[in-house]
Amino acid sequence: MKDMGSKLLLAGLLTLIAAFGGAVTENVSAESSYRVVVGFEEGTSGRYRTAVEGEHLHTYDSLNAVSMKMNRKQIIEMQKKPEVAWVEFDQRVSVAAERETWGYKATEPSKARSWGLTGEGVNIAVIDTGVAKDHPDLNVRGGVNTIEGSTGWADDNGHGTHVAGVLNAQPNNRGTVGIAPDADLYAVKALNKDGDGWESEIIAGIEWAFKKDVDIINLSLTTCSSSIPMKKTLEKAEEKGVLVVAASGNKTPCNGRYLPDVMYPARYDSVVGTGAVNDEFQRAAFSYGGNSLDVVAPGTGVYSTYVDAKTGVNGYEYLNGTSMAAPFVSGVFALNREAYPHYTIQQLRKEVRDRAKDLGPKGKDKDFGHGLVQAPVNPFKDVSSGRWYYEPVRKLYVDGTVTGFRNATFRPDGKISRQDVVTMLGRTLNLEEKDSNTGFPDVQENSYSAGYISAAVEKGFINGFPDGTFAPRKNITRGDMAVMLDRAFQFPEAGRSYFSDVNGRYYTEPINAAAKAGVLSGYRDGTYQPSEPVSRAELAKALYESKEYSSR
């Protein structure tokens, strides 16, 4: 968060906590008006909620609660009503930052980017001071302002714009680039020009994000104590499958003392609590740690997009803080969400945890949690660099030709069916999917491969068996693969035989032509083994080499 000195936690919050320990009591002065959040018992009608005495601020449907301004008498009367489950003071929350330099290399997003992982298709809400609408390095899909009496989600502080850039700055040869530049970013302005705000307005922003079907919420803000409405809201986010990342907090005393654990909301079990490290991979001096810390990320001298609050001029700035660390983690989660779309948020949290670079004592510790967050290397757990099929699989994944399985594997040694071969061939050649009625009785019209099979038959790349079937689930042989590739890419005639076991059969010329083109190879004993089934890795390499050949 931006350097705010003693204003990190406002005096109003300190006074309330000192007097009441965070709970509503009869010690509230009669003359004052206070912001409270009121939770109602299940089944309480919306009509009753809106009829209660006091100034209404926000309604939270998912909590069955409202936030209001009330005086002492109204608060005490509200607590007595049987329809009311709880009443809590609205808390002040603050952004978390300071100032210096380094980059994005520590989290290694370049490895993920080489596989085309950029956060595409992932929705992220940044709940903060807003985001500069016209910054040339940012592309925000939309936003909202949840601050009472305020309109517009433009950033009048600079903090939210900086956070947004760490996540989402565009690869446009200017300024910097974010961890997940192709994610869809939403700005929620819930903190004012001083970087302060109320929890009730944060909660309203979270509920707005729910309606936008966001995948990830970034909270680079902190407060000293827990609250029922915030805790319940973030638990609701977890139930909805929304990942929430929050800053662990910059070391600021709360009510005159330092906390033994990270600040809120990072301390909640439903939230990924994020601390900061410096460029020597030491815990940043300002970063709160503790048992609830999950991971750490770069938090000193972070260079990102910025808007000058006084002049409104867009630019770039170096800032320090756990606020700067949190969007690195949100960005890494976005890359993982894209790579592993079928994972639950629990699986995604485990993935990020397991990949984190251990920095302190072995295992989880109070200074670094599970370690320095790292971007995913690739979307497949069983495809490692150095293998003969690595580059073909990578390039075919990037262009959308190959996909994996729900458990994040590619299964390179697994056999591949005829319908999968045709599907991959169709994607490689950008075939227009034809009528799903293929004419084959064993190919269902709603099958994922039906359109490609129709298109490939029309092009003459494939045909069925003498009995009129296609046998879509039958494993394809090395000989049949050569026939399909030769018809699709039209290799020139070989004029000779390359393998001792390929002679006089329907696949002889296609195999020899593909071998001459450098697309297919045999075994060390001089055979090709045309009747053997093809593995997924072998097909990927053959398709890759075919594309390379056709582009020469």
From TrEMBL:
GO terms for biological process: proteolysis. CDD domains: Peptidases_S8_Subtilisin_subset (cd07477). GO terms for molecular function: peptidase activity. Gene3D superfamilies: Peptidase S8 propeptide/proteinase inhibitor I9, Peptidase S8/S53 domain. The keyword Membrane does not apply. The active site is at 128 (charge relay system), 159 (charge relay system), 323 (charge relay system). InterPro entries: Peptidase_S8/S53_dom (IPR000209), Peptidase_S8/S53_dom_sf (IPR036852), Peptidase_S8_Asp-AS (IPR023827), Peptidase_S8_Ser-AS (IPR023828), Peptidase_S8_subtilisin-like (IPR050131), Peptidase_S8_subtilisin-rel (IPR015500), S8pro/Inhibitor_I9_sf (IPR037045), SLH_dom (IPR001119). Residues 1-23 form the signal peptide. Keywords: Hydrolase, Metal-binding, Protease, Serine protease, Signal. Residues 376-435, 436-499, 500-552 form the SLH domain. Pfam families: Peptidase_S8 (PF00082), SLH (PF00395). Belongs to the peptidase S8 family. This is Serine protease, subtilisin family.
